[in-house]
Amino acid sequence: DVQLQASGGGLVQAGGSLRLSCAASGFAFDVGAIGWFRQAPGKEREGVSCISISDGSTYYADSVKGRFTISSDNAKNLVYLQMNSLKPEDTAVYYCVFPCERPDYWGQGTLVTVSS
User: Fold this and answer.
1) Beta-bridge partners for 81
2) Which of 10, 41, 45, 52 is the most exposed place for a label (fewest CB within 10 A)?
3) pLDDT tens-digit profile of 64-105?
4) What is the mean pLDDT of the chain?
């Protein structure tokens, strides 16, 4: 079974930082791209960031460019999302997904709340 276990969410003040982690299992970690979507209250889900495990190429939504950094630890099948300079509009449930382009698998989500 494909499993995507996200963690690291929490409450932070605007301008603060959080690091999300995703532990992936049940599929070939070095094939395809894995990443993060988010869903804010009352809004549709949106893609945040993706990373290709095989070549390390990355994608970021315009809204997070320059503030968020995605990375992976291929030996441990872990993907991280370092989120800096957080804004209240970053408040959402963040989901680890695979494959990133058109996700078939979604983790359980981790809530990030940014207070103003």
Assistant:
1) 20, 70
2) 41
3) 999 999 999 989 999 999 999 999 999 999 999 999 989 999
4) 95
Asked if the peptide bond before residue 99 counts as cis, ω within 30 degrees of 0, the response is yes
Contact 52, 73 (CB under 8 A): no
Instruction: Mark residue 42 as left, alpha or beta (left: phi above 0; alpha: psi -120 to 50; beta: remaining).
Output: left
Pairing assessment for the beta strands 10-13 and 110-115 based on DSSP bridges:
parallel
The percentage of residues in the chain with a pLDDT greater than 70, rounded to a whole number, is 100
Strand partners, 32: none
Number of neighbouring beta carbons within 10 Å of residue 69: 16
Sign of CA dihedral 67, 37, 77, 33: negative
